[in-house]
Write a structure and sequence with these properties.
Helix content: 40-55%
Radius of gyration: 17 Å
Number of strands: 0
Strand content: under 5%
Distance between the termini: 36 Å
Structural class: mainly alpha
Shape: globular
Number of helices: 6
Number of domains: 2
Length: about 160
């Protein structure tokens, strides 16, 4: 595509190769083709549509919504959780439902506080998970934690 760097497979540094972006219809020169607060690579990773700013049509732009984060939580294996997936995944999803309610009612600052409480439950994994971490698989914890951090940033936190 005109303007892309032939020496750089990912001209906009969004995690998708330029050729893949052309095939998907996203813009290889714009990291966030639909301007919703999630870059195209993240949208592909979490299952939202990088060409639709509100993939689930709930009135909340994807970058401020919790649905994609809930899906990432649900996709973790049971072994990733301290309780082997008995209650903690459901509790995490329910807390994210509360965050979505706060966003929908324009209490972003409270939503950020809720997310920070949730993030505190996954802030270990230096050498090993901390005793209060809900996700004990460090790779899974780092993945979910980075997504929580992205949502906090997108909400202005």
């Amino acid at each position: 595509m005109r303007g892309t760097n032939p020496l750089d497979a990912d001209s906009d540094d969004d995690g998708l190769n330029d050729g893949d972006e052309v095939g998907r219809g996203t813009n290889p020169l714009d990291a966030d083709s639909d301007d919703d607060g999630l870059n195209d690579g993240t949208e592909v990773q979490v299952g939202t549509n990088p060409l639709d700013p509100d993939s689930d049509d709930d009135g909340i732009p994807d970058g401020r919504d919790v649905e994609w984060l809930q899906q990432a939580v649900r996709s973790l294996p049971r072994s990733a959780w301290r309780d082997r997936g008995l209650l903690l995944p459901r509790e995490t999803v329910e807390e994210l439902d509360e965050v979505e309610f706060l966003v929908r009612t324009h209490f972003d600052h409270l939503a950020v506080l809720e997310l920070k409480v949730l993030r505190h439950r996954m802030d270990g994994c230096g050498q090993r998970p901390q005793l209060d971490d809900w996700i004990v698989d460090c790779s899974a914890q780092l993945q979910i934690r980075s997504l929580v951090d992205l949502l906090i940033t997108n909400l202005g936190g």
